[in-house]
Write a structure and sequence with these properties.
The structure holds 2 protein chains of 2 kinds. By secondary structure, chain A is mainly α. Chain A contains 14 helices and 2 strands. Chain A is globular. The two termini of chain A are about 30 Å apart. Chain B has one domain (about 1-285): ABC transporter involved in vitamin B12 uptake, BtuC, CATH 1.10.3470. Chain B has a two-stranded antiparallel sheet. In chain B, helix 2 (about 40-60) crosses helix 8 (about 185-210). The chains are: A mainly alpha, B mainly alpha. The interface of A and B includes residues 62, 114, 293, 300 and 303 of A.
Chain lengths: ~325, ~280
Amino acid sequence: MKFRNFPIHLGLIHLSLAISLFFLISLGWFLPTYIYRYFTIAFMFSCLALSWDILGGYSGYLSFGHMSFFGVGAYTTAILLTTLGISPLITVPLGAFISGLLGVVSLSVFIRLEEAYFAIATLALNFSLQSLATVLEITGGARGISTPLLPFSPITLYIIFLSSFLVITMVLLSMRYKIENSRIGYAMLALREDKTVAECLGINTLRMKLIAMFISCFFTGLVGSMYPLFATFIDPTIGFSVDWSVLLVVMCICGGTGIWWGPLLGAFILHSVRELFTYTLPIPQLSLAIIGITFVILILFFPQGIGGQIAYKRRS
Amino acid sequence: MLPLFLTLIITGISLGALYSIVALGFSVVWGTAEIVNTSLSSVAVLSSYISFWSFTLFGESFLLLTPFIVLFSAVVNLLLSIYLDSVLTRMPPLYSLMAYFGLGYTFQGIIAYVWGVRQRTIIMPLLDVVVFLGVPLKFFIVIGVMILFFVAFWLFLVRTKPGLAIRAVSQNKKGALVSGINVKRTYMLAQFLAGIGAGVSGVFISFIYSFSPATASLWIAYMFLIVVVGGLGSVLGSAVAGILLGLIQTVTSYIMPSLWADVIVYVVLIGVLLVLPKGIGELIS
């Protein structure tokens, strides 16, 4: 039987995601737009965190500049859409593919650096692309690019993107489960734990790294190239946001890296904290301070992540 | 042509001096405790806001308060890091990067709450007018302070017992522990020195440069650049790398549109990482 090994908990998560999607669509036009906005952004962050963790959690390369690939995807869509008028159905996969290629090229140059220096190199890539996007004509400089609004009502637009991010989340979850329980996943884990031993066991470590990089950057770029379609604009401070790059890493760490459902949990927790304090505090500046304190507390008290604590407790 | 050239060089060097003073502390903390204290740039910005505040209270004589401002930022950095480092030294270095990024956000948020997000700069009616060789005297003061700071730091590392302890811990922690060095106290010392550096630099940013809470995020990239180019824990390397960075920035923003300066700086950073991963500190020593 093909489905004999299909895990019941993965199925349950998928089922609950599908049911919540069904309810969100059918209740649709009655709920306030804010709820759609909240869930769309939350699932966007889940996709980004889950794809970051394919590289960071499984093969052990912590990239602090993953928003570079998001930005490349976003700008590909925005430029092609506004200058050449190409349909989003073509630009989105194209943007994802270009991000994946850029990821493989740049990260494979960086992998010979030590762990901390790899992180700095990715951070520098992010900063350099950000400043490049601010300078160049084609990316619209610091003002960015406004993309035309798709011909749907706002709520339909949110439902479209909410469901696409949900589907990507489901795909990534299944893929991550598959990775954890397959030959290729064991190879990646071996690579993370000890590179030399992994090579001695006959694992083609370079191939594993390239696969992890491509998948990770591809999905980041996919989400990125969908972003300007519903935000209707893209500028360097969002497209190549260094703050979001660090936020992604903290999401994965706080959810639990290397656990297939960990980043999903982390993304929801941190996104909720952000939303809660951005909109409820009377003084917007203090929300940044509170997010900072949240980072510190999460790293100090949950270094294995909240998901990690659950998973390791169950295992022991 | 020549006076303009001289102005560019002097402003570049003094800007680089400010970068390198912050980055030296950052580099020493990273070398000894394996803690990536990115919040030092926020401490520097905090100290420049305190200088701004005391300038509006006391006018130009606020420069007499400099030791207290520096001491305050050093103590703030020390107290926070004592608590954070007690947990973070048991984790990989990149975890400390994230925690201190968060701490930096906290500083930025509080600064923005107290003083607002506008760009500030101090215009001093007396000191700004004094000109030497066609360049305002304050730039020379900054360069002088930087030379003093670096010589003092270098003498401290080479000639004193605590400096020896810092060098020992950064070479081999277990060896240092076995030979009776209090490793935890050495970490605290390194953080205290880094706080002093951030404080000094912050006071001088306030009157030769403009600053806003967001300056702190930009400086994080510059600190990384100086550590990578100069080599971890290298005093001379940090000074050279910082000055090079300042010169590149001022000269490129004169030749090209000023935004290109950042692009060039980051490309240089990536290039140096790939070609010379240990930095030019190795070549010098």
